[in-house]
């Protein structure tokens, strides 16, 4: 699949256009196409072969031609033209969180910044502070952005790694007939960002398994190919390692290579106390293998029940397993619907009918249409009259549906003074109201917290979306007293969201553990702006599982009628 390559190309074209001060609508068109193509679950080469590129929302004739050109030649002439005269070193500075093409253009023209060394020197000697639109806060933001970029080097987002690894595993099953092959490492634990992708397999002929792996069509470069281990580079420069082990050791190896390190150290401490040795080859007593073929046998030999990989962080899961008191974790199948989806009435790419069809195909009972409110003009936010029209449209579509329901909702902006962007009169007609902060991220801790609390105190607000405002690898959470917000969520009967969009995953797993301890109801929404992004519900479910959440802790495990009753404070 070349989806990520093409998405990245269009993102770079948007950056270059913005750097050069070109038409903002053209910039926006490329960014929208990049986002949609990057999140497609279908192979764009197959879409192109079928002549269906124009059916992708956000892809017009011009962009479709560029996709075809890239698939045929490996490049796009318009990109090369834009890139001319701009060095790779200068372009690389656009990756710095908080920089942006406009800011880079300014400091390039005014100060002569050409690469990271130039930028670091200008930050150090204070040359940037006096530039128009800069100042101390902006300079500090760029400095912190450089630190974030350095921290994220060699790491990848779960939303990128998870579908890619699943695709490789499925390809291996199809090519080899393997039944025992799984991802391991931090990806199996569903951490929000990971390093390399690790896969473990077992079969009668390890050398043939490795040969099949290194020969997959997704492979761009083979780094190593031996009898038991192969290492390759695939799309986007991502490294994937596959290890083939003996069947009698497969369970022990899966446990060992899944980790985490603190979890495994704790297990080995328990093993020593039982006069047992545990490693990737098995569980041994006096050099006799007593377990290792199956993973649950490893845990059983240590006197505890098997535990889901998402819990294996040494946060009390071992003690709970010894007591037989592990939580009955949320399953993806428990989730009855998506509570945060955008349509083309605001900045989404699909009409409401298509969203309904997609929701039904996923087995959902309901999907909440929650477009932006009027103050978020950049996202085409809805004024009150438009929102009322959308409600009528949803009612019309619901009359034609059977066994599935669209919920009338909104993602209403929490304004800088803490008021909401829509009147109570309009909010009272909705099935579900999500409130969110989209501006004023730099306000003091007390003010940010107060804004969210004021929103929760509005009787019509049901959910606070992406409560900390972070964007993985590019924007840190705003300064927020989350414990106080959680306490007020209980008092006001308000749910806090796990925003499942892969660049957010907000709340995170630690927040979820705290919320569960306090008794806060959690909701999960994909924040999808295209129906194909609704698959990210699996990422939200993974965050919930890592946070020890059970079915009863999650709002959208309720059927539609009980959900609406809950939202009406019932």
TL;DR of this structure?
With 570 residues, the protein is an alpha/beta fold. Strand 11, helix 17 and strand 12 form a beta-alpha-beta unit.
Summarize the structure in words.
The radius of gyration is 25 Å and the shape is globular. It has a seven-stranded parallel β-sheet with strand order 11-12-13-14-15-16-17. Helix 1 packs antiparallel against helix 2, helix 1 (3-19) crosses helix 5 and helix 21 (482-492) packs across helix 22 (509-518). The chain is built from 24 helices and 17 strands. It has four domains: 3-152, DNA polymerase, domain 1 (Orthogonal Bundle), CATH 1.10.150.110; 156-245, Beta Polymerase, domain 2; 250-323, 2-Layer Sandwich (Beta Polymerase, domain 3), CATH 3.30.210.10; 332-567, Metal-dependent hydrolases (TIM Barrel, Alpha-Beta Barrel), CATH 3.20.20.140. 44% of the residues lie in helices and 14% in strands. The longest helix has 19 residues, at 158-176. The mean pLDDT is 92. A hairpin with a 2-residue loop joins strand 8 (277-279) and strand 9 (282-285). It is α/β, with parallel strands linked by helices and 570 residues long.
């Amino acid at each position: 699949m070349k989806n990520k390559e093409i998405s990245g190309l269009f993102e770079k074209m948007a950056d270059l256009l913005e750097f050069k001060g070109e038409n903002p609508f053209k910039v926006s068109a490329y960014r929208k196409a990049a986002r949609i193509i990057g999140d497609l679950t279908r192979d764009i080469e197959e879409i192109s072969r079928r002549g269906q590129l124009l059916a992708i929302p956000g892809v017009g004739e011009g962009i479709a031609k560029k996709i075809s050109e890239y698939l045929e030649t490996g490049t796009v002439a318009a990109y090369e033209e834009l890139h001319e005269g701009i060095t790779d070193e200068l372009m690389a500075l656009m990756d710095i969180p908080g920089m942006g093409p406009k800011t880079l253009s300014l400091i390039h023209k005014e100060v002569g910044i050409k690469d990271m060394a130039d930028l670091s020197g200008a930050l150090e000697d204070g040359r940037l502070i006096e530039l128009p639109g800069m100042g101390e806060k902006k300079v500090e933001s760029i400095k912190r952005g450089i630190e974030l970029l350095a921290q994220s080097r060699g790491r990848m987002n779960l939303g990128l790694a998870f579908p890619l690894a699943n695709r490789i595993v499925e390809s291996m099953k199809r090519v080899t007939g393997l039944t025992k092959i799984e991802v391991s490492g931090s990806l199996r634990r569903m951490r929000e960002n990971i390093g390399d992708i690790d896969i473990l397999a077992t079969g009668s002929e390890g050398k043939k398994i490795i040969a099949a792996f290194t020969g997959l069509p997704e492979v761009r470069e083979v780094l190593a190919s031996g009898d038991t281990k192969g290492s390759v580079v695939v799309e986007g420069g991502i490294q994937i390692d596959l290890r083939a082990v003996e069947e009698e050791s497969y369970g022990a190896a899966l446990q060992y290579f899944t980790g985490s390190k603190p979890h495994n150290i704790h297990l080995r401490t328990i093993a020593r106390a039982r006069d047992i040795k545990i490693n990737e080859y098995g569980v041994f007593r006096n050099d006799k293998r007593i377990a290792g073929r199956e993973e649950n046998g490893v845990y059983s030999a240590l006197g505890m029940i098997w535990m889901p990989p998402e819990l294996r962080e040494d946060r009390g899961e071992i003690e709970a397993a010894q007591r037989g008191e592990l939580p009955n974790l949320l399953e993806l199948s428990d989730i009855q619907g998506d509570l945060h989806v955008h349509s083309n009435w605001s900045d989404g790419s699909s009409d409401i009918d298509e969203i309904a069809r997609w929701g039904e195909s996923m087995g959902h009972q309901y999907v909440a249409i929650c477009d932006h409110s009027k103050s978020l003009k950049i996202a085409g936010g809805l004024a009150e009259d438009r929102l009322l029209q959308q409600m009528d449209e949803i009612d019309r579509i619901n009359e034609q549906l059977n066994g599935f329901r669209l919920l009338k909702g909104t993602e209403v902006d929490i304004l800088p003074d803490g008021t909401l962007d829509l009147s109570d009169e309009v909010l009272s007609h909705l099935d579900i109201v999500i409130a969110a902060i989209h501006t004023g991220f730099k306000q003091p801790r007390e003010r940010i917290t107060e804004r969210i609390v004021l929103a929760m105190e509005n009787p019509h607000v049901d959910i606070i979306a992406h409560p900390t405002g972070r964007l993985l690898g590019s924007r840190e959470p705003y300064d927020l007293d989350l414990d106080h917000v959680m306490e007020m969520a209980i008092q006001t009967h308000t749910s806090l969201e796990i925003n499942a969009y892969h660049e957010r995953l907000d709340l995170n797993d630690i927040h979820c553990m705290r919320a569960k301890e306090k008794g806060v109801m959690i909701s999960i929404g994909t924040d999808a702006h295209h129906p194909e992004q609704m698959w990210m519900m699996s990422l939200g479910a993974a965050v919930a599982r890592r946070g020890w959440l059970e079915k009863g802790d999650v709002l959208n495990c309720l059927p539609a009628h009980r959900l609406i009753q809950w939202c009406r404070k019932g």
